[in-house]
Amino acid sequence: MPEIVDTRFEPGQLALYPYLYDPMTLPAGRLYGAYPLLHPDNNKYYTVGVTHLDHSGWGFDNTKRATSHKITGANVMKNNGANVSGAANMTRTQVRNAANQSACTFFFGNQNQEGEYYVAAGSNQAFWYNERIQEIQLADFGANAINYGSYGDTSMYNADTLVASNALSSSFVNRYANATAAKASIPFFNNTYTAMDGSTKTLADVHTAANIRLYPQQPYNNNALVHRAMHVEDCYVIAGWTKYIVWFVWPPYESVGESIAHSGWPYVFRTTNPAGKVEAFGHLHIPTSQAVAMGFWAMQGAPGADKKGLVPFSQGGRGTADINKQHAFGIWYGGKPLERWTPDPGSPSSFPWTSEGQLGYSQEPNKGHDGYHSGVTRWKKSYDALGGYGTKAYAQVSYDGGATWKDPGSSPYILYMLSQKAGIAETEVLSGKIKVCFYDPFLPPKKAQPGIRIKHMATGQVFAFTKPVVGNETKAEVFNL
User: Fold this and answer.
1) 7: Cβ contacts below 8 Å, ≥ 6 apart
2) CATH 3.20.20: which residues of the chain?
3) Which of 184, 186, 212, 273 has its CA at a distance of 20 to 30 angstroms from the CA of residue 113?
4) How many CB atoms lie within 10 A of CB 46?
5) Where are the beta strands (DSSP E) in 352-402?
């Protein structure tokens, strides 16, 4: 069968996916909560696979809550009595009032662990808040509504320290022993609270989804992001979790600091009216191939992870394609301005900055969001080619045409492959067809790998992609068995 490719993918400064992509509807069991970044028509996003558009895109119109995604912040805690040093002082009544004021949507998360008025992970306040959100969602949207909690919630499990050098350490391997081991040291499953009805519950009981935060930290040692997420999914599957697992992703490097991203002006724009050069501070961003992989594997998921979601976070909001509409955001480190203007001869010495609240040209590239969308699109094409959901399993990989194989033996597959700095391969079987998926972030960029073979572990059948894997691309192809 033809290989699955994304012929519309053209990553760049602007988020182009609403314009370029053909109509697509995700099947039941998959959620995709996106932000409106460029296209002026919100409804266009829903036609290309987005299941829930960010509530801000609708001007926080509460009549749109059922088809919206939203991430609320800790200001609702501030408004209901939280101390500046955190919300530990808040009573159950105050926390429930804060949840009432959150205007939660069908697809919902929060940033309550951030800021001065934060809610501590695993605290009573965290339980009370999510308990009330669950009640509201059930009343307003029914049992299928999704609350994945605070993104990167440290009471959940994100495996932030997992890298190739420690992948086979007992702290990770032991989680694969059984459900009890998979839940070990995860407060989300283990801490208990008294519910409103007097029963004993956990945080897992008052969430309809768990989330995995995939924020790249530094522009190095960053290859393991997808391996980490798949490891976390493995643990949730072993723990018996059958609800949604949502990948919460962001393309910039988070911990870049003054010495990396803010030591210069990494983004340069040639304007025409007036003519000159705008230079802007901004985060450095992950390779687009990694964003594609995140989009694909967030939908594909680990074996046994059957309900999946993706939320690509954006702090920029909707923009314009007019490069002359540039924002000036103020002062950054040490009084150094975020933007600077160099006029061409004859242009004014001061740039006519676009005022706050008006649409501006994105000063950080949105290619990561196009990458996420491309990954989702590739997954949907693979789903269609297979004919639906099948039986998933990890698969062995050969890089030399089948002469030798990456064989995990008794080791957990993902941990073994990461320890070998090898890729992730997965098969999915349905009605005489098999989908073969592959991604390796450790391969040299842009170099073809004609020797890659994938072995279906159950049968020993070996598959070669119609065209070789090139660099760090995400591959998926369906074959007849």
Assistant:
1) none
2) 17-251+286-321+360-385
3) 184
4) 17
5) 391-394, 396-398
Confidence of residue 399 (pLDDT cuts 50, 70, 90): very high
How much is the pLDDT for 451? 97
In sequence order, what DSSP letters do the residues of 308-358 get, joined into one string?
A: EEEEE--SS-S--S-TT--B---B-GGG-BSEEEEEPTTS-SS--PBPTTS
pLDDT beyond 70 at 430: yes
Name the strand (E) or helix (H) holding 418. helix 413-419
Average pLDDT over residues 286-300: 95
Residue 109: partners with Cβ closer than 8 Å, 6 or more residues away: 69, 70, 71, 72, 147, 148, 149, 150, 151, 211, 246, 248, 311
Which numeric CATH code is attached to 17-251+286-321+360-385?
3.20.20
The answer to whether residue 346 scores a pLDDT higher than 70 is yes
Cβ atoms of 368 and 286 closer than 8 Å: yes
Q: Which residue has the tokens 């696979």?
A: 49
Q: Write out the two tokens for 235.
A: 């643990």
Q: What is the pLDDT of residues 184-205, one digit of tens each?
A: 989 999 999 999 999 999 999 9
- DSSP-assigned states of every residue in 161-217: T--GGGTTSHHHHGGGS-HHHHHTT-HHHH--EE-TTS-EE-TGGG-SEEEEEE---
Residue with the two structure tokens 């340069």: 268
Express each pLDDT in 408-425 by its tens digit: 999 999 999 999 999 999
Residues in CB range of 481: below 8 A, 6 or more apart: 429, 432, 433, 434, 461
Classify strands 68-72 and 391-394 as parallel, antiparallel or unpaired. unpaired
Which pLDDT band, with edges at 50, 70 and 90, does 119 fall under? very high
* Token duo for residue 151: 């993104």
Distance CA 447, CA 347 (A): 45
> What is the C-alpha end-to-end distance of the chain, expressed in Å?
11
C-alpha to C-alpha distances, 14 to 138, 275, 317, 361, 370, nearest whole angstrom: 37, 21, 12, 8, 9
Token code pair at residue 404? 């030798």
pLDDT exceeds 50 at position 385? yes
